[in-house]
Amino acid sequence: MYTAPNIVLPQIKDLHQLKVYLANGGYEAYKTAIRSTADQVIDDVKKSGLRGRGGACFPTGLKWSFMPKGTDKPKYLAINGDESEPGSFKDRLIFEANPHQLIEGCLIAGYAMGISKVFIYIRGEYHAWVDMMQKALDDAYEAGLVGEGMKRTFNHDYSVEIVVHKGAGAYICGEETSLMNSLEGDRAYPRYKPPFPANKGLWGMPTTINNVETIATVPAIIAMGAEKYAAIGAPGHSGTILYGVSGHVNKPGVYELPTGTLLTEIIENVCGGVPGGKKIKAIIPGGSSMPPLRGDEIEGVKMDEESLKVLGTHIGTAGIMVMDEDTDIVAVTLRIARFYHHESCGQCTPCREGTGWMEKVLHRLDHHEATSSDIDLLYSVASNIEGNTVCALGEAAAWPVKGFIEKFRSEFEARCKPSRSFVSLNVVHGRRKSSDTLIETS
Amino acid sequence: MTHSFSTEELSEITKLKSQYPDAKAAIMPVLWMAQKKWEWLSEDVLRTVATVMELPYAHVLGVASFYTMYYKKPMGRHHVQVCTNVSCMLRGGAELYADVKGKLGVGHNQTTADGKYSLEEVECMGACGGAPMIAINEQFFENVNSAKVMTLIDACE
């Protein structure tokens, strides 16, 4: 079933149906996995070089190995399908086209870590996709592939329960500790780390949180062998990734390609180029929270974490947003800032207040009401959010603003009010650092 | 309390609670059930939920108010959601929102006088590849334009 690059989404008709999935070697990888010990499965995942697909690119096998062994506490696995990062729309396709591979991945991950219960957290907006996932799960339960029945089916004493949990519209729930609070039935405020979830997660028990795509990749790794998987794509970040391309391209959509694929190849050949043959002004490589790249920087850029890190950005969720030469960068930055202001949960002051200030300053800039010192103010607000919050939403809000200012400062300056003349001493604000006076020319 | 769950619904709630190690976790699915039944979550509905969940009203209100998809006021029978986030914005989402706003004559999170439509300018709904997109109630419509959206809105009963 698995031939690169179609590993997470094999091109097989009706694969979402259990009988088609079984006919194509479905649930065989789990049988292979239970023939080895749990530690061997974790080792295989380590060897495969699989890194999390949710944005942070943390090595999956290593994350699994953090789970305590030999404890009689219940252990949980939470699958993060909150997918709310603007520009990301890949997990939805897994729920729709290949839900059983995700379920099989849960079984393998569950076996490797000794998990007793898996929660698949899906964002609330995905009503139809929650139903699709639930349908696949019900079918799997009925066929004795999940739950108590799997002991008999696979002739092995390991069993795991899976529950689909529907969110209700909060971006912050994609943050792993926030997801845990949401699942537990509290307001979804992120938690401090440490303690890390592997020690104290859901209901205080050892917990691992993995992205949907990460877990859906696991059966393929077991089926094809870790070495073979590790050979796909870029060194240091192996495998295939679901690239979600949106914005100014002729054929937007989700494409599964090896890591390290050239950005220009994805845009020009896979997605059919920019409409009207226009030039590219900017690209966000991994969802709206990642720093952008200028159009003149993308030649030769490979889409994997190690290559992008060198350029000061990250692969994130591989949600590529393409903006052509006519794009209003200030308006885009304002829209991104507005999103993070809206989605800030309000727990930490720098983020709660700072995201609002950034939106206000950008609004002034967008409406030609700002002065050039406002650009510095904006940059300083962003810098003071970054690193000063419990969760990474602070960075997510600050990075794009800082990135766009760094790469497109002239566009921001062009929005500032025309220069003012210094017709009188600025008495009132004599100690102000800014060179602006209060008196305007017109 | 004027709202109450039926016996079947109460047994469904008991089943939901048993899915989690702690019954409190069933609050989100139960709020979804309540919203489906009563269309929006009034104070009285939240008190009903608090009773069946054996939780303080303040906690239930706290959770319900954290999430945008739990409605704290009545919405239209057809809740029109237009995405204006970056991917949609690049492909005309903002203009589309302005058109829909003009057609319905209401703003963000407002309902028409006859209660038929409500409008929401939503954040990214995860359909960036089909931008611009709108959703009416639970259904997504991708690769739309102003004319298509007007037809979709008119087709609502």
Q: What is the helix/strand order of chain A?
A: HHHHEHHEHHEHEHHEEEEEHEEEHEHHHH
- Give the number of helices of chain A: 17
Fourth-level CATH superfamily of the largest domain in chain A: NADH-ubiquinone oxidoreductase 51kDa subunit
CATH architecture of the largest domain in chain A: 3-Layer(aba) Sandwich
Biggest β-sheet description of chain B: 5 strands, mixed
- How much of the sequence lies in strands of chain B comes to 5-15%
Second rung of CATH, namely the architecture of the largest domain in chain B: 3-Layer(aba) Sandwich
- What would the average pLDDT of chain A be, to the nearest integer? 94
Estimate the global geometry of chain A from the Cα principal axes.
globular
Structure in words:
The complex is a heterodimer of chains A (442) and B (157). Chain A has 442 residues and is of the alpha/beta class. Chain A folds into three domains: 18-231, NADH-ubiquinone oxidoreductase 51kDa subunit (Rossmann fold, 3-Layer(aba) Sandwich); 234-321, Roll (Ubiquitin-like (UB roll)); 329-413, de novo design (two linked rop proteins) (Up-down Bundle). In chain A, 42% of the residues lie in helices and 13% in strands. In chain A, a hairpin with an 8-residue loop joins strand 10 and strand 11. Chain A is globular and about 80 Å long. The mean pLDDT of chain A is 94. Chain B is of the alpha+beta class. Chain B has two domains: 7-66, Arc Repressor Mutant, subunit A (Orthogonal Bundle); 78-154, Glutaredoxin. In chain B, 45% of the residues lie in helices and 13% in strands. Chain B has seven helices and five strands; from the N terminus they run H-H-H-H-E-H-H-E-E-E-E-H. Chain B has a five-stranded mixed beta sheet, covered by helices on one side. Chain B starts with 6 loop residues before the first helix and ends with a helix. The relative contact order of chain B is 0.12. The chains are: A alpha/beta (442), B alpha+beta (157). At the A-B interface, strand 3, helix 9, strand 7, strand 13 and helix 14 of A face helix 2, helix 4 and helix 5 of B.
